[in-house]
Amino acid sequence: MREDEIVLYMHAGSGNHGCEAIVNSLCHMLGRPAVLVTNRPEEDRRYSLGGLCREMVAEKSIEKNFFVHAWYYAKRALLRDPECFMRYRYGDVTGKNLRKLNISIGGDNYCYDNMLDRLMQSNRMFHRQGAKTALLGCSIEPELLKRPEIVADMRLYDAIIARESLTWQALRDAGIRDNVHLCPDPAFLLESRTLPLPEGWKEGRMLGLNVSPMIVDNEKRAGITMENYRALIAWALEHTDLSVALIPHVVWDSNDDRKPIRRLYEAFADSGRVICLGDASAPELKGYISRCRMFIGARTHATIAAYSTCVPTLAVGYSVKALGIARDLFGDSDHYVLPVQTLERKEDLIGAFSWLMEREGEIREHLARIMPGYREKARGAKALIEGLLD
């Protein structure tokens, strides 16, 4: 077993710039060798992770090879060995290549049912081989912790580092206490990269907007999310001197913010006050977001980029992560998070933004006051991780 290296796993790829932001920030924070197991190594190198990790290991996909797929399904069924999938998937960091500490960095992976078996099996596999595991920067829906198999899985981790207090409290309420800690998402520490501003950017007068297919998928009334975004842009153009910057934060083919953003841009392109940013790395996107006057974001790490640079922000959320982070920053999530499930009228987003705009100055001052301490709490994850290596 290699004692001096850390494995970062459950990383989906940097086309989700939130995933990129977590790895980037964590590598800088730890300042020690780390091996990144990734679905998309070329994608990671194309953005900001090239050179940050000691090694990038491509995660092996059983599904892409019919014969491997058939063999491991038969092995799992005949030998009753569900972890054989994970031993194949993570073969380059198991057995003789095993490291002492393996950190699951998926953030909200436990919020998705299709991820649960893989998360639990990999946790058990690393432990059976004698390694330690940690779950870092996580958000977990409280309802999930009513399932005994999930509680057992949580107890197996050597450390769970929740990124917001709703998850932390839900874990404690489920009886998971000894291995649970609370530290803000490491992406609060991500360094910005400042690029030249695009044509049409009005310094001091930009409202940054991010929308995603994920929130559209969670709406209760079909079409209501895009109706609200269109109504908000029309209202801002008519009633304020703001211009609008549409900013994507995930660009995978299967989950691409640029698709709804393009529809919004086309609806208002003739105004001359709406611009559409292209793809960029997480540090570069944070650089743009930091220069917005206010921000409305659907992607959690887009809002983290705004919060951490003291930009007054409204999260259009759908899960515990948005609510928990806002509550930790402001003491309450009311007015700071607009759950997409509550959208009923096309004016709902206008109302939420109007509240934010009326309090713009005091919100910015509040963030400037608390952010140094909040970022310092995020650095606390380093000591917890180093403790697992002792």
What key phrases describe this protein's structure?
single chain; 390 residues; alpha/beta; 7-stranded parallel beta sheet; 5-stranded parallel beta sheet; 15 helices
Series of H and E elements: EHEHEHHEHEHEHEEHHEEEHEHEHEHHH
Backbone shape: globular
Sheet with the most strands? 7 strands, parallel
Radius of gyration computed on alpha carbons: 21 Å
Mean pLDDT: 94
> Helix/strand/pairing class, anyone?
alpha/beta
- The residue ranges in which pLDDT falls below 50 over 5 or more consecutive positions are none
SS elements, strand count: 14
For the termini, the CA-CA separation is 14 Å
SS field, number of helical segments? 15
Percent range of helical residues: 40-55%
Domain Polysaccharide pyruvyl transferase: 103-319
GO molecular function: transferase activity
Protein name: Polysaccharide pyruvyl transferase family protein
Keywords: Transferase
Structure overview:
By secondary structure, the protein is an alpha/beta fold. The chain is 44% helix and 16% strand. It is built from 15 helices and 14 strands. The protein has helices spanning 17-30, 41-46, 66-79, 84-89, 116-128, 148-156, 165-173, 213-217, 224-239, 258-268, 282-290, 300-307, 320-330, 348-358, 360-389, and strands at residues 2-11, 34-38, 55-58, 99-104, 132-138, 159-162, 180-182, 206-209, 243-246, 251-252, 255-256, 274-276, 294-297, 313-315. It has a seven-stranded parallel β-sheet with strand order 3-2-1-4-5-6-7, sandwiched between helices. Strands 12-9-8-13-14 form a five-stranded parallel β-sheet, sandwiched between helices. Helix 1 (17-30) links the parallel strand 1 and strand 2 (34-38). The longest helix has 30 residues, at 360-389. It is globular, with a radius of gyration of 21 Å. The relative contact order is 0.13. The mean pLDDT is 94. Pfam families: PS_pyruv_trans (PF04230). One of its GO terms (molecular function) is transferase activity. InterPro entries: Polysacch_pyruvyl_Trfase. This is Polysaccharide pyruvyl transferase family protein. Residues 103-319 form the Polysaccharide pyruvyl transferase domain.
